[in-house]
Amino acid sequence: MLDPALLRDEASDVGTRLAQRGDGLDDLVGELRRLDHERRAILPGLEAARHAKKALGVQIGKAKRDGQPTDALMEAGQVHTATIETEETRLDQVEQARHALLLKLPNLAHESVPIGVGEADNVEVRRHGEPPTFDFAPLSHAELGPALGIIDFERGAKLAGARFSVLRGAGARLSRALINFMLDLHTTEHGYTEVEPPLLATKAALTGTGNLPKFEADLFRVSGDWDLYLIPTAEVPLCNLHRGEILDGRMFPVRYVAYTPCFRSEAGSHGKDVR
């Protein structure tokens, strides 16, 4: 989440860098600035009313000790109490609205990120090795898998609908081997600790990683009284593992690795990205 002070103090730079993402965020940023201005306008009056009520409480206590009437002071206190309640309600509404909008803002891209409108504008930073060349037309996994009997798209669709498959025989073993290879490499050679997290996550956890509210349409929510979602990636539970904790700096760096199924619909990604 972006710091509201950044939007206020470096508005021009933030606006430019958000515009580079091409998300059409001008109206949202404008509304955030308006809410921030309204919040800052509420605070002085609210603090003044709180201070006046506190001072009045001291006067009422003194008047009672001195045997003086307190009716007028009590009435004035009720006025301050009403003002405080009204302004606190306004402040709470403004802060909730501001928080909801802040959750919709993406992170600012680093200055080194190339600006573009599509894949053609991507910049190759480095290359490891060279792509192989063939003296024949290579087939995709979607063609090779069924031909070798290791991927079954038809039965996958029968079991779970379109865009699902069944791995069989060598295909299933290859999948398991790749999972073990990844986990073993990270844990034995790079100092990672393997974690097997829950496959369900709370709204707070998904909000913490930025999946909510922006990508709610891609998530699978558990029905009934459970306020839980199927995780879209192991990143969600791993990033939230120490949420709300204060860690001893001597623990760092903390490295976790996990394998999990990833439950997300990825609406609109049909075609080449799927195949």
What this model shows, in words?
With 275 residues, the chain is mainly alpha-helical. Among the domains are: 4-102, Helix Hairpins (Orthogonal Bundle), CATH 1.10.287.40; 191-268, no CATH class. The protein has helices spanning 4-9, 11-19, 26-65, 71-102, 141-148, 153-160, 170-189, 203-208, 235-239; strands spanning 151-152, 166-167, 193-194, 200-202, 228-230, 256-257. The strands form three sheets. A two-stranded antiparallel ribbon has the order 1-2. Strands 3-6 form a two-stranded parallel ribbon. Helix 3 packs antiparallel against helix 4 (71-102). The protein starts with a helix and ends in an 18-residue tail after the last strand.
Q: What is this entry, summarized?
A:
By secondary structure, this protein is mainly alpha-helical. Helix content is 49%, strand content 5%.
Keywords:
275 residues, mainly alpha, Helix Hairpins, two-stranded antiparallel sheet, two-stranded parallel sheet
Mean pLDDT: 92
Q: At the fourth CATH level, what is the homologous superfamily of the domain at 4-102?
A: Serine-tRNA synthetase, tRNA binding domain
Percent of sequence in beta strands: 5-15%
Provide the gyration radius in Å.
28 Å
